[in-house]
Write a structure and sequence with these properties.
Structural class: alpha/beta
Oligomer: single chain
Helix content: 10-25%
Radius of gyration: 12 Å
Number of domains: 1
Number of strands: 6
Low-confidence stretches: none
Strand content: 35-45%
Largest sheet: 6 strands, mixed
Distance between the termini: 12 Å
Mean pLDDT: 90
Length: 84
């Protein structure tokens, strides 16, 4: 696991398994309060040009998809033993 930079933007977590498959994760308490917060969390993931899974993890219950990036509720994800 590492943290990555894409230009001036930062990706919170870059995960890699033993087979060199990657996942990218942005974490925020909420993105539903403002469009600016939503855009700030999605922007680094939208700049990554590969096809590995990308996630925005929040405590929000109103979830969305944007440009193939999955918005997940982190609490529900952990309860269901989800994997990135």
């Amino acid at each position: 696991m590492s943290i990555g930079r894409i230009g001036r933007l930062e990706c919170d977590f870059i995960l890699r398994d033993n087979e060199l498959n990657y996942s990218y994760v942005q974490v925020a308490y909420t993105i539903n309060e403002s469009k600016a917060t939503e855009d700030r969390e999605y922007a680094p993931l939208e700049m990554i040009q590969d096809n590995y899974p990308k996630y925005v993890a929040t405590t929000d219950y109103l979830l969305q998809k944007r440009n193939g990036i999955r918005h997940i509720n982190l609490l529900e994800f952990m309860k269901s033993h989800g994997r990135f």
